[in-house]
Design goal:
The complex is a heterodimer of chains A (about 170) and B (about 550). In chain A, helix 2 (about 40-50) packs across helix 5 (about 110-125). Chain A has six helices and one strand. Chain A starts with 11 loop residues before the first helix and ends in a 5-residue tail after the last strand. By secondary structure, chain A is mainly α. Helices cover about 45% and strands about 0% of the residues of chain A. With about 550 residues, chain B is α/β, with parallel strands linked by helices. In chain B, strands 1, 2, 5, 6, 7, 8 and 16 form a seven-stranded mixed sheet that branches. In chain B, strands 4-3-14-13 form a four-stranded mixed sheet, with helices on one face. The longest helix of chain B is centred in the last third of the chain and has 20 residues, at about 445-465. In chain B, helix 1 packs parallel to helix 5 (about 235-240), helix 1 (about 15-25) runs parallel beside helix 10 and helix 3 crosses helix 10 (about 530-545). Chain B contains ten helices and 16 strands. Chains A and B meet through helix 4, helix 5, helix 6 and strand 1 of A and helix 5, strand 5, helix 7 and helix 8 of B. Strand 1 (about 160) of chain A pairs parallel with strand 5 of chain B, so a sheet runs across the interface.
Chain lengths: ~170, ~550
């Protein structure tokens, strides 16, 4: 059983760091039962997207995750995933303000903002995208997926139409 | 000898109607559509790839590659936008039915004043503001025809500011919802007139299709119950049922052909089947361009000939100018109790209190609440700028606010700017080698002033309705087109100042018409589709009788 869904696009170390970041971006909440990002499938969403629509962001992910670990080591000696949640949050918040100690070859503010957006996409969009497992995010916010069966006539375009039935 | 009486280019809101009117009058019609004939199953209910939130793609055409546009940024630098879903492309859904397959279907008539903006307000510096060559009364019968033949639900009498109508709507309005009730109380406090807004959506069975099942993915998506009325489920099937209309999909018109005397003879178009590209021609007595304000202008410009070196209808360099859409002042707020009952469509209350008569600004616009939106759309549009963007605080914000969200927004009537325009790019080509549309310029500064005025009204409405944490995105000067794109082949009686006449006929060409948002002189403070439809019914009747 693979420990992460990223195959060879991220190293094990990068995947471990990413998982830790995702779970601070959207943590599990003691207050209720709704899962954190990783358990909701956001890792699966990103694994798919980083080999698809977001392939152009892959190098930013690698560089940013490497820098995040270096930042953590320079501040606290250990890597990001080894920090406790409070320190992880504190570090992400300072990076969001642009306060970096290590050498970053991507902008830390931009990296944090990008992650926050991508994590939200995986967590809150339809499960067909790989995240929002069991519609957990929709149950949390109160979006009711009212799936309905198509009532379009199957033969609407059968007469006098030449060409493709779809793109 | 012509193959057809008429060729209609584009099977969207206008093209579908013209094709139907002509075919039902016995004309032989070729309807060419560059997109596909979609079925419900082919338009995904993907929350990241739809016509409301197109982060990585969209439901309908054109395809993601091979159809770039060029957008000139505010520093004057041209940027190539590769994919239709990307920012700046200003796509409108392409396919049979066009935007009417996935729209929110708001069914607005313009007001009498909207047809004479220049007389009403004067012409501000740098603007090309003008009156229409026709008035509301001339269009009223065709608004009525669109409402009854395409199918509109609404409350006929409740809008105190509407212009006279001969009768009400064929279907009753959408039901009340919590957001409507809250906003009505607020408007009552302010003394504003409100009403249940008109929609091209069945609230009862109509035209042999059922009433809306009230799903919560409406605007931006195809309707599961086929209750959202567009040209794809009304006039286009009617046109095809006559056996006098042929629809070819996946057919990109390359140019409008003219003979040595300059008369329009037909079109050359390109099809791609299983990777094989074929170039074909069709001849017709009349050609009607209904490709949308950007693509219609592009096609006229790409149809240059020795007699028309600047493109058809463009002897005076007017084709493509006055590109406009709608600025949308928006206010977000949060109510103590849930507003979102998960029952679509959601848009349910509007006011026309501020379309005109606003001190110190030109025109105005309608304000309304909005459709039920997806959680990810909510996260991206309603999160206040000072709210946490991640972490437990953000998660709890999502959990606690999604259903309490209340929103007021509306389309502002834009003041046309001739420097906001469509040209064809000198170097970038599409997959067939055709020069692509190039968009440049910005809205007129007066549009921003009116937008700021309306933004204050939107905020006031939420305040009076008891919303908390109200915020409103800032207004910036930019190019405006989008799904409400209009103005690029404006109507007028004077050939020196307009591209088409009052019937949509290109001034220099007796048998070439443009019918879509392109011909709007101004675009109203309303969603423009019912006006596009009414003009198509009106000109379709004219073409059937005279061509």
């Amino acid at each position: 059983m693979p420990i992460h869904p990223f195959g060879s696009i991220l190293s094990d170390a990068q995947a471990t760091t990413l998982r830790a970041v995702l779970d601070r971006m959207i943590p599990a909440d003691d207050y209720d039962d709704y899962p954190g990002a990783w358990d909701a499938g956001v890792g699966d969403y990103l694994a798919r997207q980083l080999q698809g629509d977001l392939a152009a962001c892959l190098s930013t992910y690698r560089d940013g995750l490497n820098a995040l670990d270096l930042e953590s080591e320079s501040r606290f000696v250990v890597g990001f995933s080894a920090l406790d949640a409070a320190r992880q949050d504190e570090m992400l918040a300072s990076l969001e303000r642009g306060e970096a100690q290590a050498d970053w070859n991507v902008s830390p503010e931009t990296f944090i903002e990008m992650l926050a957006n991508h994590v939200a996409e995986g967590y809150y969009s339809d499960p067909g995208n790989g995240g929002n497992r069991d519609c957990a995010a929709w149950r949390m916010v109160g979006f009711d997926p009212r799936w309905t069966v198509s009532r379009w006539p199957a033969n609407r375009w059968s007469a006098n139409v030449t060409g493709t039935a779809r793109e | 000898m012509s193959d057809y009486d008429a060729i209609v280019i584009g099977a969207g809101a206008a093209g579908g109607i013209v094709a139907c009117v002509l075919a039902e009058s016995g004309k032989r019609v070729l309807l060419l559509e560059r997109g596909s004939a979609y079925g419900y199953a082919n338009i995904p209910r993907d929350h990241l790839r739809n016509h409301r939130l197109a982060l990585y793609g969209q439901g309908m055409g054109p395809g993601a590659s091979g159809h770039p546009r060029v957008v000139v940024d505010s520093d004057g630098n041209p940027q190539t936008v590769l994919a239709p879903h990307q920012a700046g492309y200003n796509n409108n859904a392409m396919g049979v039915g066009g935007g009417t397959v996935v729209y929110g279907a708001q069914a607005w008539r313009f007001l009498e004043h909207d047809f004479r903006m220049a007389s009403q307000y004067g012409v501000p510096d740098g603007s090309s503001l003008a009156d229409w060559p026709l008035n509301y009364a001339e269009l009223e019968p065709y608004y009525d025809q669109a409402e009854w033949e395409i199918g509109v639900s609404g409350d006929g009498d409740a809008n105190r500011f509407q212009s006279p109508r001969v009768r009400g709507y064929p279907m009753p309005p959408v039901p009340d919802n919590p957001s409507r009730n809250a906003l009505r109380r607020g408007a009552d406090r302010l003394g504003w007139n409100t009403f249940l807004l008109p929609l091209l959506i069945n609230t009862t069975p109509y035209n042999d299709r059922p009433a809306c099942v009230r799903c919560n993915l409406c605007v931006g998506f195809a309707c599961p119950s086929d209750s959202k009325n567009g040209t794809q489920n009304t006039v286009i099937p009617r046109a095809l049922a006559t056996d006098s209309c042929i629809l070819i999909t996946g057919a990109q018109v390359e140019r409008i052909d003219t003979d040595a005397l300059g008369n329009v003879t037909g079109v050359s178009y390109i099809t791609e089947r299983q990777g094989t590209i074929r170039r074909e021609t069709a001849r017709a007595k009349t050609v009607i361009v209904s490709a949308g304000a950007i693509e219609s202008a592009r096609l006229l410009l790409n149809s240059a000939s020795p007699l028309h070196p600047r493109g058809l209808g463009n002897a005076r360099d007017l084709v493509g100018r006055n590109l406009q859409g709608h600025y949308y002042p928006t206010a977000h707020g949060f109510m103590p109790e849930p507003m979102n009952d998960n029952l679509g469509p959601g848009a349910s209350i509007a006011t026309c209190q501020f379309n005109h008569g606003n001190p110190g600004v030109i025109g105005g616009g309608m304000l309304a609440n909005d459709f039920i939106e997806t959680p990810i759309f909510f996260r991206r549009s309603a999160l206040p700028p000072d709210a946490p963007k991640w972490g437990l605080a953000n998660k709890r914000w999502m959990r606690d606010n999604y259903r309490r969200w209340i929103e007021v927004k509306g389309p502002v009537q834009e003041i046309p700017n001739p420097e906001s325009r469509v040209t064809v790019d000198p170097s970038v080509r599409d997959k067939f080698g055709l020069p692509v549309a190039r968009l440049s310029g910005t809205a007129h500064p007066e549009t921003l002033r009116t937008t700021e005025f309306m933004r204050e009204k939107a905020i006031s409405w939420l305040e009076a309705s008891g919303a908390e944490q109200i915020w409103s995105p800032p207004i910036t000067l930019r190019l405006s087109a989008g799904q409400h794109q209009a103005g690029t082949c404006r109507m007028g009686d004077d050939p020196a100042r307009s591209v088409v006449d009052r019937w949509g006929r290109v001034h220099q060409h007796h048998n070439l018409f443009v019918l879509d948002g392109s011909i709007h002189v101004t675009n109203g403070g309303f969603n423009p589709v019912l006006t596009i439809m009414a003009l198509a019914f009106r000109s379709g009747e004219y073409i059937a009788r005279n061509c």
